[in-house]
């Protein structure tokens, strides 16, 4: 399995997947940094009120994390959509399968190989965004927010990768691309629907949205992270501990102490007002595991 | 590790049905002895690659069974002793040749000095330039890629090699190299399973062959026995009345299996006939006037006895030669012969090797 994983890493490097993803990540994070600083400068002149700073940073961070989550999912799909089917079509896999390796080890090795790279990409992006955002609020609660995003951003590529690999075993490359993007879109729209439904308190829309995040938990994972980030930030604000922002940060727009609810409301759909069930992360992990297992089983029966 | 078994490969009613209903192979019964170079011939779509894919574990048989070195298909110990060059020999083009061999070595469980040694050995056997070893496979020519595929198959000194059209992209020198290589492998006691369309290649390198068509074995056996076994003799006589026939048959006794008598003018152009023409037999060259007697003898070496018997029986003997058919002739006849559906239906296995003599019964 390790041999296969190393094979994947070498391929990713040689085919410039790693450098391309790194450049993409750097550009994305730099853009976030530039935009955030510019925004903070301009509004600080006008308003000068600490809670605005908190609000802006929270909003921008959660928004940027959203984009990062999408990007990680898309990169995952693109990188692994033909991991099995493409190599069968081109005849690369046949001599490998004839070796004394078990077929599930091939799938496992690819999962390990791509998974490690993509988790690295995902966490690098999420952590960079968090560090930059929190830095603008002064020292104090980086650690908590880093921890808030870590499980979700580690799991996102693993969940999407498992589904894409399963598709790559079962379907031709193009069909797999269509199927996985379809699933991904359902989860994406569902996630947004759930949040909007919760915001406008439409029970039906909220439930439908919530259900669809279970189809492919990638989007749900993002919302779970967003919710935790918003909670951490508003708690910090409420306790007056928003780093160097000062006690004023604890005061909301009406001059009363700010609650998590306020911040989340102010952020619109990005306030992540629809909570995920507490076991959602466990669900996502189990989902990835089961789908990976299915992919391994399917590989055992695959015609080559 | 691997139990001693006389056979390298044995299949029993091995069949594969593709999901679209097409039968890749139907009821194949084959045995390949250890240390033999076995050639599988057959027209396009005959099922050669399907068979190799089943034996190498790419496809699971939909019916029947097979054993390699006495173990059922899929045994990992046995796989360690197998090498495989698929029909589609694309290799990951982002690796260098050396890296690919190291990767396959690692899959075989080799490491360290052992790995390096095996990699070097395999590389040197296929005649690739040293310079290419550190170059990306993407920069190789097609023939170089096929040579590399061959090196991958040879890696780890396997006891059994499956080569699916190993010379399809090779230049004449490469083809000869492969022929030499197969000879070396045979010397070393390795078993080779070769799929090929190049009959001359098979003729020169293989000990045994099977011809398949429509997923069934139509002919199989040692090449020498199929081509010319000293048992098929063509005699040219002026007249061959029943009385003479009976007398000659009596004189030959148990030496004669049977013969077929062919009227003048219906030449078959067999190699024996051409040989007689070369010796200056005008009648044979003209194809007129003489009766052809295709005799099938029970054992090789009985040709002089046949000559004596014919003369003693009173036949005017004009020429006599042992018949020898080229593999190409055998192949053409095997794949063009009509397939009788009822025979197919009742007998799923391969038909036994036909009698080599041309003009055997059933001629219109
Ligand atoms: N993937 C597939 N799906 C359906 N049928 C297939 C598939 N691959 C091969 N076949 C069919 O199985 C039969 C045997 O094909 P196979 O590739 O084994 O032939 P072959 O003897 O190797 O031919 P060639 O000399 O062209 O390489 C053919 O009738 C072919 O149409
Ligand atoms: Mg073929």
Helix content of chain B: 25-40%
Poorly predicted runs of chain A are: 242-257
Mean pLDDT level of chain A: 84
What series of H and E elements makes up the topology of chain B?
EEEHEEHEHHHEHEHEEHEHEHHEHEHH
Overall mean pLDDT of chain B: 82
The strand count of chain A comes to 0
Number of helices of chain B: 14
Number of helices of chain A: 12
Please state the CA-atom Rg of chain B, rounded to the nearest Å: 25 Å
Structural classification of chain A: mainly alpha
The rounded Rg of chain A comes to: 21 Å
Q: Please mark out the parts of chain B with pLDDT under 50 across 5 or more consecutive residues, or reply none.
A: 282-286, 340-364
The amount of helix of chain A comes to: over 70%
Broad shape of chain A: globular
Distance between the termini of chain B: 56 Å
Structure write-up:
The complex is a heterodimer of chains A (304) and B (364). Chain A is mainly α. Chain A has one domain. In chain A, 78% of the residues lie in helices and 0% in strands. Chain A is built from twelve helices and no strands. Chain A has helices at 2-14, 17-46, 50-80, 85-89, 93-97, 103-135, 142-170, 173-199, 203-215, 218-238, 260-266, 280-301. In chain A, helix 1 (2-14) crosses helix 6 (103-135). In chain A, 51% of the residues are buried. Chain B is an alpha/beta fold and 364 residues long. Helices cover 36% and strands 24% of the residues of chain B. Chain B contains 14 helices and 14 strands. Chain B has helices at 48-55, 76-80, 97-107, 112-125, 142-154, 172-187, 199-205, 223-227, 242-252, 271-278, 282-286, 303-313, 327-336, 341-346; strands at residues 7-17, 23-33, 37-41, 63-68, 71-72, 82-85, 160-164, 191-195, 208-213, 216-222, 232-237, 256-262, 291-297, 317-322. Chain B has a six-stranded mixed sheet with strand order 6-7-8-3-9-10, with helices on both faces. In chain B, strands 2-1-4-5 form a four-stranded antiparallel sheet, covered by helices on one side. Chain B has a four-stranded antiparallel sheet with strand order 12-13-11-14, with helices on both faces. In chain B, helix 3 (97-107) crosses helix 4, helix 4 crosses helix 5 (142-154) and helix 9 (242-252) crosses helix 12. Chain B is elongated, with a radius of gyration of 25 Å. The N and C termini of chain B lie far apart (56 Å). Chains A and B meet through helix 1 and helix 5 of A and helix 2, strand 6, helix 3 and helix 5 of B. The complex binds adenosine-5'-triphosphate and magnesium ion (MG). Magnesium ion binds at residues 48-49, 87 of chain B.
């Amino acid at each position: 399995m390790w041999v296969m994983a190393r094979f994947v890493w070498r391929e990713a490097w040689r085919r410039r997947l790693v450098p391309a993803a790194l450049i993409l990540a750097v550009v994305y994070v730099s853009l976030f940094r530039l935009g955030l600083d510019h925004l903070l400068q301009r509004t600080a002149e006008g308003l000068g009120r600490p809670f605005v700073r908190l609000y802006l940073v929270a909003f921008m961070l959660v928004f940027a994390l959203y984009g990062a989550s999408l990007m990680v999912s898309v990169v995952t799909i693109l990188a692994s959509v033909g991991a099995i089917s493409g190599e069968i079509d081109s005849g690369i896999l046949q001599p490998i399968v004839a070796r004394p390796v078990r077929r599930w080890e091939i799938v496992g090795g690819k999962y390990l190989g791509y998974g490690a790279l993509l988790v690295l990409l995902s966490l690098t992006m999420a952590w960079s965004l968090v560090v930059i955002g929190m830095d603008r609020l002064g020292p104090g609660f980086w650690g908590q927010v880093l921890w808030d995003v870590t499980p979700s951003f580690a799991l996102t590529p693993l969940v999407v990768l498992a589904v894409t690999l399963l598709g790559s075993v079962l379907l031709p490359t193009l069909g797999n691309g269509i199927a996985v993007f379809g699933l991904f879109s359902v989860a994406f729209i569902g996630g947004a629907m759930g949040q909007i439904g919760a915001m406008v308190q439409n029970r039906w829309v909220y439930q439908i949205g919530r259900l669809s995040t279970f189809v492919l938990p990638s989007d749900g994972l993002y919302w779970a992270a967003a919710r935790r980030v918003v909670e951490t930030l508003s708690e910090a604000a409420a306790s007056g501990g928003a780093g160097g922002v000062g006690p004023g940060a604890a005061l909301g727009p009406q001059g009363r102490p700010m609650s998590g609810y306020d911040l989340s409301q102010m952020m619109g759909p990005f306030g992540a007002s629809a909570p995920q069930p507490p076991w959602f992360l466990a669900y996502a992990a189990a989902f990835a595991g089961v789908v990976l297992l299915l992919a391994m089983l399917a590989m055992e029966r695959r015609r080559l | 590790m691997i139990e001693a078994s006389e056979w390298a490969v044995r299949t029993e009613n091995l069949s594969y049905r593709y999901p679209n209903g097409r039968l890749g192979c139907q009821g194949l019964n084959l045995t390949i002895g250890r240390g033999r170079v076995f050639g599988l011939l057959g027209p396009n779509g005959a099922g050669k690659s399907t068979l190799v894919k089943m034996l190498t574990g790419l496809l699971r048989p939909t019916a029947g069974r097979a054993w390699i070195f006495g173990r059922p298909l899929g045994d990992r110990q046995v796989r360690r002793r197998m090498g495989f060059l698929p029909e589609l020999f694309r290799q990951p083009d982002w690796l260098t040749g050396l890296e690919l061999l190291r990767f396959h070595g690692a899959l075989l469980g080799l490491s360290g000095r052992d790995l390096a040694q095996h990699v070097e050995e395999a590389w040197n056997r296929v005649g690739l330039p040293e310079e290419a070893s550190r170059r990306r496979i993407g920069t190789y020519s097609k023939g170089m890629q096929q040579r590399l595929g061959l090196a991958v198959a040879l890696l780890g000194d396997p006891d059994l090699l499956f080569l699916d059209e190993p010379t399809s992209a090779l230049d004449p020198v490469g083809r000869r190299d492969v022929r030499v290589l197969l000879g070396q492998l045979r010397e070393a006691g390795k078993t080779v399973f070769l799929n090929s369309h190049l009959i001359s290649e098979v003729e020169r390198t293989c000990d045994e062959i099977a011809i398949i068509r429509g997923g069934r074995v139509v002919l199989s056996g040692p090449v020498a026995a199929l081509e010319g076994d000293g048992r098929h003799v063509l005699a040219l006589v002026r007249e061959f009345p029943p009385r003479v026939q009976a007398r000659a048959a009596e004189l030959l006794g148990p030496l004669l299996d049977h013969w077929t008598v062919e009227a003048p003018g219906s030449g078959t152009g067999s190699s024996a006939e051409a040989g007689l023409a070369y010796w200056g037999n005008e009648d044979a060259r003209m194809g007129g006037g003489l009766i052809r007697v295709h005799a099938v003898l029970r054992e090789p070496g009985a040709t002089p006895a046949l000559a004596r018997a014919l003369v003693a029986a009173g036949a005017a003997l004009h020429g006599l030669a042992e018949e020898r058919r080229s593999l190409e002739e055998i192949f053409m006849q095997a794949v063009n012969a009509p397939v009788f559906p009822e025979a197919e239906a009742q007998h799923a296995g391969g038909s036994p090797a036909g009698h080599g003599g041309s003009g055997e019964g059933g001629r219109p």
